[in-house]
Give the backbone structure.
Amino acid sequence: MTATQAFSTLEWGRVDLNQVPNLVTKTPGPKSHEYHTRCTKYFKGLSGQVKLFPVVFDRGEGCVLHDVDGNSYIDFSSGIYVTTLGHCHPEISEAIAKMSHTLMNAHDFVSPVKTELCEKLAEILPGDLSGFQFYDSGTTAVEAGLRVLRAATGKNEIISCFNDFHGKSYGSVSLAEIRSKVYGPVRAPGMHMVPRPNPYRPMWTKADGTIDTDAYLDFYDQYLGRATVHDVAGFCLEPIQGWGGSVMPPDDFFPKLRKFCDERGLLLMVDEVLASWGRTGKWLCVEHWGIVPDVVTMGKGFGNGFPVTCVAVREPYKESFEKISASSSYGGNPVACAAALASTVVIERDNLLAHATHLGEIALKHMNQMKAKHSIIGDVRAKGCLMGIELVKDRNTKAPFDEAGKRVYQKAFAKGLAWIPAGHILRMSPPIIMDEKTLIKGLDIIDESIGETERELGCK
């Protein structure tokens, strides 16, 4: 199929549930075990999800993944928040293939496709976000964003938040919790961390028991005055925590944080590598709360799996790119720009932001029904196709139930659902092109797996 032919992305995302999931072997199957053994003789440092379920995939289309043993799975992961428009979307694949035969790299020289992409971004992004630079990974984009904060303000210190995730270089790791001494015995100089509001696990509450967002802002004010050297460039945080477990902030948090930063001359950087480009039903997740960051990073679904990311800045800070040696060898190469532009055009043309929002509403309703059935479900949340289920040993204590999370993940995967673990929090990120019946089928597989886990662990 060519891009000029009529094509329905939602039809591409439709799954024949009579054919998928289809398990012809016990999973992971014998060929998966063989490939996994051969590869891991050399390839090290696998993620936790692969170690828990070492299946080997060899192809995918739309919302379906196939492994080397001939088993077929519903994809509830999107390659970990990446293939937002499904696997191998024909129009995006064609755009990539065409550009790979035309011009693959010309360093940071302007190209027609880069020009078109910049113009499209300036058109659809909120506010005056109109300065762009492109990179090949989320980590690289975050590092560039931090340099912009410092160049724009002339200051050095950065405030970030507990349980956020921003990448795996020393600077980006220093925005989060350093779990390995290989990054050094201390956090990078000038990096500070503060708690962020978690409605299910609040640190400060009001008299009625609801979360007290103002108390967090009051703490930030005290922290700035007493724990920094008064050289803070700005805040950097995720809009919704991904690695932290699809944790949604209270609706008043970002508007209040935006005002807090403005009143103190601080810039606000939002790391949207995971949450942007339709994942939550908006181009940027922060649009749900009506704010515009000064600096924002986009990635993952930005190129629907092709390694392309972006740093966008507001009009007053565009020239800061000139101060930070912003170019990179692979960033903004013509193939990457073609992938990002095609992904953007498809989302806009096929009204997929609205579809993602609709899927989130269906998922939240279904997950609340699951919560009513299962005592180990403490909390459920969804915004668009960014979803989470938190498992607890007791709803009163909210003690995390890691063993249950591990078992549910493995059981659901063995039933034909490819998805993401996070300890006691079950994370889901189906492609935003998925149809309603497939979404509910995936949730039913999780429902069944939770029930089996409860019985095995003797939960009431």
Summary: The domain at 92-349 is CATH 3.40.640.10 (Aspartate Aminotransferase; domain 2).
